[in-house]
Amino acid sequence: MNRRVVVTGLGAITPIGNDVDSFWKSLKEKKVGIGPITHFDAAGYKAKLAGEVKDFQAKEYMDGRAARRMELFSQYAVAAARQALEDAGIEMSMEDPYRVGVSVGSGIGSMQAFEQNHRALLEKGPGRVSPLMVPMMISNMAAGNVGIAFGLKGKNINVVTACATGTNSIGEAFRAIQYGEADVMVAGGTESSICPMAVAGFSALQALSTSDDPLRASRPFDRDRTGFVMGEGAGVVVLESLEHALSRGAKIYAQVAGYGATCDAWHITSPVEDGSGAAQAMRFAIEDAGLSPEDIDYVNAHGTGTHQNDVFETRAIRLALGAHADRVKVSSTKSMTGHLLGAAGGVEFIACVKSIQDGFVHATAGLSEEGEGCDLDYTKGDGVSMDVGCVISNSLGFGGHNASILLKKYV
Questions:
Q1: Looking at CB atoms within 10 Å, which of 7, 105, 223, 318 has the fewest?
Q2: pLDDT by position in tens, the chain (length 411)
Q3: By CB neighbour count within 10 A (0-12 exposed, 13-18 middle, 19+ buried), where does 22 fall?
């Protein structure tokens, strides 16, 4: 448990950029990647906007035959993993492949594969169901395909905790390195579920924004917020033990210092109202890092734009940080990307790394006037240049899953 863990590689496929530099530039410029749904005809749906990935070409990251055997969520994961591994300068010919693992999760897998094959079953009979339906649909295939693509033979896991998936995946990779199970872990989250069944299902829960204005649809913490906007993409990072990174002369972005995970044990969709579960996850991460609340400079909030999340997460931050909560910057990446579900934690982790590296906290786009019960500094207006030494990233999932990961400047 004494092994220090550092971040050495970053990879991102997002609605506001298909690489880390363009993603980060877009965040700094408050570029919103939300627009009308193009993946299917959404004319009859209450929610008509989404944060879709643009101009993605799988052939830029993998050969055509491999791509045809993957659904989009797996393609995004492999693409982001390739970026991260190349950024980290990992040469697998120089590594013991059984010491390089994968922890890449998807909250859903491919609902599209299920939709398509269910239609074939009903219309043409069981003999027309694809023999690849199952391996293309199941959520662990993102992690599996990353391992296959790059010859990573170590621990390979798929954490599924709904919208906490990406953060839990990175946290479990962090633990694997701490415990000596691996020297390197490729970790993060991926998702591509902008399809009829998912949009209809989340709309039935009254969770999705019905706004027709892309710039005002995802408005975390705002008085007039109406729900979240579905997004898609992948955020994958390379974590290493400090010893391993130094031995090969790797560049180091930041140190992963703490991880906390809890369950509200309260409700299948709503966070517990007093925020106690999410607060305890943050406390665990702070204690794990050997720090105090006063050390935290920035909280990248789960910040979905639903009434319950934004109020209850605000309460959680206040419970975890006490009086220091009034001095901490808070913002929501989802205000620009939409909610990437299982990929959100991975993409937002990258935003936190870049915040430390560049000394900048991005704004919460679309926030005009804070809603009732939302009384923190949510970085309204423009982003802020400041020294960012310690960051907490929060992810909260249906079922009461809470995950917090703490990053700090590497010294």
A1: 223
A2: 679 999 999 999 999 999 999 999 999 999 999 999 999 999 999 999 999 999 999 999 999 999 999 999 999 999 999 999 999 999 999 999 999 999 999 999 999 999 999 999 999 999 999 999 999 999 999 999 999 999 999 999 999 999 999 999 999 999 999 999 999 999 999 999 999 999 999 999 999 999 999 999 999 999 999 999 999 999 999 999 999 999 999 999 999 999 999 999 999 999 999 999 999 999 999 999 999 999 999 999 999 999 999 999 999 999 999 999 999 999 999 999 999 999 999 999 999 999 999 999 999 999 999 999 999 999 999 999 999 999 999 999 999 999 999 999 999
A3: middle
CA separation for the pair 51, 332 (Å, rounded): 15
Same domain, 210 and 317: no
Residue 56 belongs to a domain: yes
Segments forming the whole domain that contains residue 155: 5-247
Q: Which helix (H) or strand (E) holds 281?
A: helix 276-288
The pTM is what?
0.97
Sequence length of the chain is 411
Residues 28 and 98 in one domain: yes
